[in-house]
Amino acid sequence: MDKNLATEMGVLTQTPWWMTVLRGVAALLFGIAVILWPGITIATLLVLFAIYMLISGVIDIISSIGSMRTNSSWWLTMLLGFVQIAAGVYISQRPGATLAIAVLVIGFLFVIRGILEFIMAFDLHGSARAFFIIIGLLTSAAGVYILRNPVEGGLAFAWVLGVYGLIVGPIGIALGLQVKQLQK
Description:
It is built from 7 helices and no strands. By secondary structure, it is an all-alpha fold. Helix 5 runs antiparallel to helix 6 and helix 6 runs antiparallel to helix 7.
């Protein structure tokens, strides 16, 4: 095991690698579904996104519990998990809600998630820190874009979410596989 890489990965090595890979796979599958089927109804898109948020939220809560002793920002991860679960439940309970309301919830969630990921990046070192800073900035930027253009059109909204999944998914999978190598 490369000790420099282990130091760079920091608290990520405390999280089971498969959780990070699972979140990446869920994001990637969501992105692929949205890009391959751009004509799906907004209600279907929102249900798919709600499922992704629920999976991601549960993973964040489990991860935060597992890293309480070693991660000073474990509570941010737990908070993020609860926010994602709340958003996932809200969206799944109201798939027929107006697009504007759902878009606002998702936009605010992205901004919050991006800010928290950016803050949490400073508990990491090297390439892991860089990954989280990039993911945090991209997530916040997607949230700001969504909030600035809430009713611009369902297709544009779907593309933003799809591209987000296609970018964040592979990064999460790669990060999880790096953690797996370090945990051996």
